Amino acid sequence: MKLKTLFVLSFTLLIVFLIYLSHIDKKVYYVALGDYQALGVTNEGIITYGYSDYLKDRLKTNNKLETYLIGYAKDNARITDVINDIEQNRELKIKSRKQTLKNALIKADLITLSIGMNDLFYKIGVNHNLEQLNYNELYYHVDEMMEDMEKLFKLLREYCKEDIIITNFYNPTNQTYTKLEDVLTYANNRLEELSNYYDIEYIKVDDIFKTRKTSFENIYPTNNEYKKISKRIETKMNQILLNK
């Protein structure tokens, strides 16, 4: 009789505990990685609100934000910079406490990543005559970039088993030169393939820049473009994260 009572009590406690777990207010540990897009650098060279800040605000408004880390992003970051930061376990000092990158990746429920634009347009050159570019060399450069990107994805997946979202490459100029567009399409196709392989959510943002009228020197998004990027990511975030 005592055994039966103990069993019933244990079963009841288990049910209560499971119900409790299902109603816990799960909050998001959000890490923003990458380049100027994560930081929100504008054509004026100042840091304003990047897409990551808008996402942070949305999570906070929904009472879903646990932690937001933007300090690992750098304006001029290239793919190898993020790789090195992870391998060297870069530290941030937050409220007198040290936060290592590997530990942040392990804790992260959500990582957003924008990287590769600096790699790509360093090779093109912001003042270059597009008709005089060596496009065979550009394709080779993209292949090298994708080797680095795969190394980065492997590293990220070594530490983070949760949701990762990456934005694709865009043409920052109103010069819709066919050969350049072909290179960007090739780069984005390679990026999408890698993203799918490593279970990373791939977000198209390149069409947001199709109607811009800025000069080739100004590769940074405008504040309005950052808002549009954040909306794209937010839609995917709601699908994969907030509805869990």
Concise account of the structure shown:
The chain has 244 residues and is an alpha/beta fold. 51% of the residues lie in helices and 14% in strands.
Defining traits:
5-stranded parallel sheet, two-stranded antiparallel sheet, 244 residues, alpha/beta, 14% strand
Task: Please characterize this protein's 3D structure.
By secondary structure, this protein is of the alpha/beta class. It has helices at residues 2-22, 36-39, 51-61, 79-87, 101-107, 117-124, 135-159, 178-197, 223-242, and strands spanning 28-34, 65-69, 91-94, 97-100, 110-114, 163-167, 201-203. The chain has a single domain, classed as Rossmann fold, CATH 3.40.50.1110. The chain has nine helices and seven strands. Helix 4 (79-87) packs parallel to helix 7 (135-159) and helix 6 runs antiparallel to helix 7. The protein is globular, with a radius of gyration of 21 Å. Residues 16-24 have low confidence and may be disordered.
How large is the radius of gyration? Answer: 21 Å
Distance between the termini: 41 Å
Q: How many domains, in number, for the residues?
A: 1
Strand content: 5-15%
Low-confidence stretches: 16-24
Side by side, the strands of the main sheet go 2-1-5-6-7
Number of strands: 7
**Share in helix:** 40-55%
Largest sheet: 5 strands, parallel
The averaged pLDDT comes out at 86
Identify the overall geometry.
Answer: globular
